[in-house]
Amino acid sequence: MLSLREDLLPPKWTTELARLRSNAAPVPFDQILPVIERSLGMPHTEAFVDLEVEPTGAASIAQVHRARLHDGRAVVLKVRRPGIEAKVEADLRLLSHLAQFVEKEVPEVRRYQPVHVVEEFRRSTLRELDLATEAHNIERFERNFRGEPHVLIPHVFPQWTSEVMNVQEHIDGISAEDLAAVERAGLDLKLLAERGVDNVLKMILEHGFFQADPHPGNVIYLPGNRIAMIDFGMTGRLSLGRRHQIMDLLAGITRRDSEPMVEVLLDWAGPEAVDEEGLAADVDELVADYGDLPVKDMRIGELIGRITAMLRTHGIVLPSDLTLMFKALITLEGSGRKYDPEFVLADRLKPYVERALAARYAPAELGRRGGAGIGQFLDLMRAMPRDLARLLKDARRGRLRMDLDLKRLDIFVGKLDRTINRITIGIMTASVVIGSSIVMTVTSGPQLFGIPIFTVLGSFGYLLAFVNSVWVVLSIWRTRSH
Predict the structure, then answer these.
(1) Distance from the CA of 44 to the CA of which of 136, 210, 403, 444 falls in 20 to 30 A?
(2) Strand residues in 81-225 grouped as ranges (E)
């Protein structure tokens, strides 16, 4: 993503970072071939002909080799790197340990739930490792864009697809990373940028299922300014309710209405206490800054940065399903600007927001939602007598139980336990001092090395009392320093 942020990094950095997208060092073919044949369960010659030894592309998780089926169709084999699972698992374990340490030791970070964030990242990464899951994703995108004349999604061959390899239709075109070749082909850069962005926005705002990594390495341009999309290992999903919240945020900015935006952010906060007045003031400031800003000057990356900073200030955790969406939008804006310096993502967003809001409040949709609400209310009323009867029966039988969950009670109990321990040791120390003082007054009785035994016992008691006193003082000092 940073390779597309030339507004943040100088060109020499973005150029080097761009190499990580699809130019990783390939695995030698003699290590890849056993993976292919284990996946097929047969020699590769029974499924393919002209399997190329040199990969056409290599990324961090898999690499791609061209081949042909026996009927002559050109295909590409996307093969997972041998041993990559162990490397990914090791990295994920390190991230998990780090997140647990930070969440335990840094109270200021605890509200952002780093363990939960890493777990979401873990699930996303493991899904990306499963190339059979990617094949299912491609089939779903193919259905979603069926009938779109300017979009091509490669066909998947499920009979050759497994967890470690998927086989797709080969698309012969120009990589979006090769800007010079695109210009030589006479393609319309501005139109390509618009169509590419429209495709991703349609995925996010209409389908609710989107490619989360729409960088140029995952895009191929075809004659007639058509666009083919590849690599659907990293995908995001947005429920209808979440899409409505996104629409409310965008509409609040364009309509200069902060109230629906505040409601959305409070929903994201959940049960956590939030300074609502302070949040409303910050949202008003955001709306004032962006509401009157000409669309041509609006930068989605900057807007997302302002929103996430505001969430951090008020201790609101960004819903995990929005993280990939924000990443996709920032990547999209950077990609669009490489092809059209005047490109403005907000321009392309506006018609989608207007259509979505119009559809949400259309009479047919209002009728459908109203009918659903009436049905839920009737179900509730129908179940209420039964639920009340069960509640009363449980109360009569003494089985009615209330669970009281007091936050931070465990911390309080721990502190109380330490306090009681100190008091107990203090009382015992005082008792030892008093007893030793009494024993020291006895000069008669048996002796040890010429010293009265009671004098020895009293001295030992004083030493024990001194050690206990030092321990109590140090314990109190450590607690106060924490």
Answers:
(1) 136
(2) 151-152, 165-169, 174-175, 209-211, 219-222
Q: Which two tokens stand for residue 212?
A: 């989360």
pLDDT in tens, 159-200: 999 999 999 999 999 988 888 898 899 998 888 888 888 888
Count how many residues are written for the chain. Answer: 482
Q: Are 236 and 331 in contact (CB under 8 A)?
A: no
Q: Compute the radius of gyration of the chain from its Cα atoms.
A: 33
Q: What are 440-482's pLDDT values in tens digits?
A: 776 666 666 666 666 777 777 778 888 878 877 777 777 665 5
Helix 276-291 × helix 300-313 angle, to 10°: 170
Phi, psi values for residue 228, rounded to 5°:
-110, 135
- 422-431 pLDDT tens trace: 788 888 888 8
Please state, in angstroms and rounded to a whole number, the distance separating the CA atoms of residues 480 and 385.
Answer: 56
DSSP three-state, residue 149:
coil
Q: What is the largest CA-CA distance in the chain?
A: 115
- Closest CA relative to residue 136, chosen from 40, 50, 235, 224: 235
Spatial contact of 81 and 27, defined as CB atoms under 8 Å apart: yes
449 CB neighbour count, 10 Å cutoff: 6
* 298, 301, 304, 305 alpha-carbon torsion, rounded to 10°: -110
Q: Cite the active site residues.
A: 213
Considering the entire predicted model, what is its pTM?
A: 0.65
Q: Six-digit token pair at 56?
A: 């056409």
H-helix or E-strand spanning residue 360: helix 345-360
Residue 471 DSSP one-character state: H
H or E segment and range at residue 69: strand 62-69
Region of 25 (left: φ > 0; alpha: ψ -120 to 50; beta: rest) is: beta
Residues 161 and 135: beta-carbon distance below 8 Å: yes
Query: Virtual CA dihedral for 76, 77, 78, 79, nearest 10 degrees?
Result: -160
The β-bridge partners of 74 are 68
The amino acid at residue 457 is: L
Residue 319 phi/psi, 5-degree rounding, is -55, 135
Strands 48-49 and 62-69: antiparallel
Q: How far apart are CA 110 and CA 114, in angstroms?
A: 7
Residue 172 DSSP class: -
Q: What's residue 436's pLDDT?
A: 76
* HSE, side-chain direction, 13 A CA sphere, residue 455: 10
